[in-house]
């Protein structure tokens, strides 16, 4: 009889874990709305704020960037770095002082990475999700959805998405990796009707002068 409380404790803990890992239908409705609106966009071009922090370090690194997205293609601009993804190939271009290099990978080799285009549908595979609640900022009702990885070895343990409830627009998101790092992104301006040609997502070395090419395909 003394073992009964311990058994009940484990049963209770298991039930709580199962509930925490469920797929909340309210959250799914929010995520479906954002994903469907993104899919209907002609092309998205935006500027954003980016910050990185670590649980072991109080310092925060802040940057500004630009992003263009069209389907599964994207072109990301950060200080001293640009990433081009045309759906088949990924070019990572880095400038350091007078040195320039570009690393080339197959897009299929980077499928497990969270990219600017996949953040809109990441919830569809490998993550559980729940609606944490709503808050109002500057007259805008924002819904907060938390995604948690189904597998313990996932590179990103947790992702939070902040959505404009009425417009179904993704406003910002936070990514928590398995090393204690926290990445935060917030859109500053967004154009969802941008004219983007396919060559905008392909790296052209002729535009960048002398560049060392590291081809890992």
Describe the model.
- This protein has 217 residues and is an alpha+beta fold.
- It has one domain (21-215): Lipoprotein localisation LolA/LolB/LppX (outer membrane lipoprotein receptor (LolB), chain A, Clam), CATH 2.50.20.10.
- It is 15% helix and 49% strand.
- It has two helices and twelve strands.
- A twelve-stranded mixed beta sheet has the order 7-8-9-10-11-1-2-3-4-5-6-12, with helices on one face.
- β1 and β2 (57-70) form a beta hairpin.
- It starts with a helix and ends with a strand.
- Mean pLDDT is 84; it is low at 1-20.
Question: Can you lay out the helices and strands and say which pair or pack?
Answer:
Layout: H1 4-20, H2 25-40, E1 44-54, E2 57-70, E3 73-78, E4 81-85, E5 89-96, E6 99-106, E7 127-137, E8 140-149, E9 156-164, E10 169-177, E11 181-191, E12 212-215
Parallel strand pairs: 6-12
Antiparallel strand pairs: 1-2, 1-11, 2-3, 3-4, 4-5, 5-6, 7-8, 8-9, 9-10, 10-11
Q: How would you state the average pLDDT, rounded? A: 84
Report the count of strand segments: 12
Cα radius of gyration in angstroms: 20 Å
Strand order of the largest sheet: 7-8-9-10-11-1-2-3-4-5-6-12
Instruction: State the separation between the terminal residues, measured CA to CA.
Output: 63 Å
Give the helix/strand class.
Answer: alpha+beta
Oligomeric description of these chains? single chain
């Amino acid at each position: 009889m003394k073992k009964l409380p311990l058994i009940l404790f484990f049963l209770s803990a298991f039930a709580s874990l199962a509930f925490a890992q469920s797929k909340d239908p309210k959250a799914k409705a929010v995520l479906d709305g954002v994903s469907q609106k993104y899919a209907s966009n002609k092309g998205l071009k935006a500027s954003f704020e980016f910050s990185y922090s670590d649980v072991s370090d109080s310092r925060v690194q802040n940057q500004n960037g630009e992003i263009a997205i069209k389907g599964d293609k994207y072109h990301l601009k950060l200080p001293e770095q640009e990433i081009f993804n045309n759906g088949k190939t990924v070019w990572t271009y880095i400038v350091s002082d007078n040195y320039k290099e570009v690393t080339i990978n197959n897009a299929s080799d980077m499928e497990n990475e969270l990219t600017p285009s996949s953040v809109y549908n990441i919830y569809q595979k490998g993550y559980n999700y729940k609606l944490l609640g709503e808050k109002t900022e500057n007259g805008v009702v924002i819904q907060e959805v938390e995604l948690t990885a189904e597998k313990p070895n996932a590179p990103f343990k947790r992702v939070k998405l902040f959505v404009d409830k009425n417009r179904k627009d993704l406003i910002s998101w936070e990514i928590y990796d398995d090393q204690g790092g926290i990445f935060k992104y917030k859109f500053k301006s967004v154009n969802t009707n941008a004219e983007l040609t396919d060559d905008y997502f392909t790296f052209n070395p002729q535009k960048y002068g002398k560049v060392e090419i590291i081809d890992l395909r």
